[in-house]
Amino acid sequence: MPHQLYAVTAVAAGILLVSLGVTLVLACRIRRLRAERDRAVRLAREELARDVHDLAGHWLWLASIKSELAYRHAAGDERLRDELAEALDAVRHAAHAVRHVSRGTRGERRLSLQGESTRAQSLLAGFGIDCSVSVARPGLPADVSAVLGTVVREGVTNMLRHSEPGRCVIELTGRDGRLRLSVANDGAPHGPHGERPGGGDGLGNLRHRVTGLGGTLRTTADGDGWFRLVAEVPEKFSE
Q1: Residue 145: is its pLDDT beyond 80?
Q2: What is the mean pLDDT of residues 217-233?
Q3: Residue 232 belongs to what H/E stretch?
Q4: What is the pLDDT of residue 181?
Q5: Cβ-count burial of 188 within 10 angstroms (0-12 exposed, 13-18 middle, 19+ buried)?
Q6: Predicted local distance difference test score (pLDDT) of residue 195
Q7: Whole-number Cα distances in Å, 96 to 49, 59, 70, 166
């Protein structure tokens, strides 16, 4: 009898262990399927945010610049200035909404230094501004290229808003283990310590991104009339 009881207990224990094993396997599979589902949803959202950022962001940026330029040159027509101010405000709100959608989803990773420099050169040519570009750097990592591309975009935006340039130079160089990107123009007014007044938080956002790569960002206004936005990042970030 004791042997039979032992056998029954052993079988019950075995069944229990098998049941626990099956339950654990099922739980792990459910968890893995949920993780795969969440990852697929996240990737879809990131892809949508990237598309919104890339397709709409550039055109809103361009519309904002052109509206500001038109507003600045409509000094003699207050009604026109009021209408342009309303249009500019609407564009800024739309641009803010696009940034909000793409924030935190790596939407800017699809920006590139070469792409933004080429766009800037084409845009400035439309305003009759001579722009030379020298940014070729084989093997530049995507995240570094995206941040430096953002520097170019912000630099050109501020240039058109606050300056009267005839020439612009966008240049990437390497020296002493660091990459140095300079966005310079010859028509900026001199502000305290080379900073432009009323520039908003654009430069602060850029500094945050550049320092995230272990780099620095600064602006200078030289005695020769050139204003420079300079970003430097460690050379080790390039492949």
Answers
A1: yes
A2: 89
A3: strand 227-234
A4: 97
A5: buried
A6: 44
A7: 13, 13, 21, 30
